[in-house]
Amino acid sequence: MPHNDLSRPHVFHAGTSSRTIVALHGTGSDEHNILGLARALDPTASVLSPRGMHVEAGMNRFFERYADGTFNEQSIEAAVTNLAEFIAAAITEYAIDAGNIFATGFSNGANTASALIVRHPELLDGAALFGSTVPFAHVDPVDLTGKKIWLANGDHDSYAPVAVSERWVEQLRDFGADVTWLRHPGGHEISPEHVQLIADELRS
C-alpha cells in the first residue's frame, strides 16, 4: 500500500475554522487515538490524522527504532517524505488551507512532527509536541521564523531526558522558532494542564 497518498489509512474531520491539525499518534496506536487531543487543542479546527505505516512487533509507528532504542534516521527521512506527500494530497482532496496547518503528536508521532517541521517547514505553522525528543543526531540549519512550537515533556521521562530537551529547545530557537518548553513532574505522559495551556494560547 502506498504511504504517500489518500489510500493510507487516515481520518479527516472538517472543522469550522481555517486551521487544520495534523494529529500523529504514538507507538502501538492508530489514526483514531489522539483525535481527542487535537479537539482539546482547538475544537474548531479540522483534524487530519494518518496512521503510522511502520509496524514493529505488531505495533504501528511512523518510523523504525533499533533494538537499543535509537532511531533509524533513514526511516525517519522516508516517513516524513511520505507524510509530506500525503498532506499535500489531503490539502487538495479536503480543501485544506495550506497556510494554516498545525501538527500535534505524542512520543513517536511527536518526533515525526519534529522531523516534519525541520525537513518541510513550509507545511506547518507550528506544533505541539508531547513526550518528544530530538529526531536526528544532527539537524542542518533551517529557517523556522514565525513557527510556534510547544515542547511538553515530563522531567522524569527517560525517553526525553531534560538535558536533551534543553539542547533541542535551544537549537529550535536558533533556527528562529518561537518555542515554549513546558515541563511536568511526571514521566512519559501528556499533562492535561499543558494541553489546556496550549489550547488557551492557540486561541489568543
In short:
This protein is an alpha/beta fold. The protein has helices spanning 35-41, 73-93, 108-119, 162-174, 192-203; strands at residues 10-13, 20-24, 46-50, 54-56, 59-61, 101-106, 126-130, 148-154, 178-184. Helix 3 (108-119) links the parallel strand 6 (101-106) and strand 7.
Protein described:
The protein has 204 residues and is α/β, with parallel strands linked by helices. It has a single domain (10-203), classed as Rossmann fold (3-Layer(aba) Sandwich), CATH 3.40.50.1820. The protein has five helices and nine strands; from the N terminus they run E-E-H-E-E-E-H-E-H-E-E-H-E-H. The protein has helices at residues 35-41, 73-93, 108-119, 162-174, 192-203; strands spanning 10-13, 20-24, 46-50, 54-56, 59-61, 101-106, 126-130, 148-154, 178-184. The chain has a seven-stranded mixed β-sheet, sandwiched between helices. A two-stranded antiparallel ribbon has the order 4-5. The longest helix is centred in the middle third of the chain and has 21 residues, at 73-93. It is globular and about 40 Å long. The relative contact order is 0.14.
Question: How much strand?
Answer: 15-25%
Unreliable residue runs: none
Give the averaged pLDDT, no decimals: 96
**Could you say which structural class the secondary elements and strand pairing correspond to?**
alpha/beta
From the alpha carbons, calculate the radius of gyration and give it in angstroms: 15 Å
Series of H and E elements: EEHEEEHEHEEHEH
State the end-to-end distance. Answer: 41 Å
Determine the CATH topology.
Rossmann fold
Tell me the count of domains.
1
Tell me, what's the shape?
globular
Name of the CATH architecture: 3-Layer(aba) Sandwich
Largest sheet: 7 strands, mixed
CATH class: Alpha Beta
Q: What is the CATH superfamily label?
A: Alpha/Beta hydrolase fold, catalytic domain
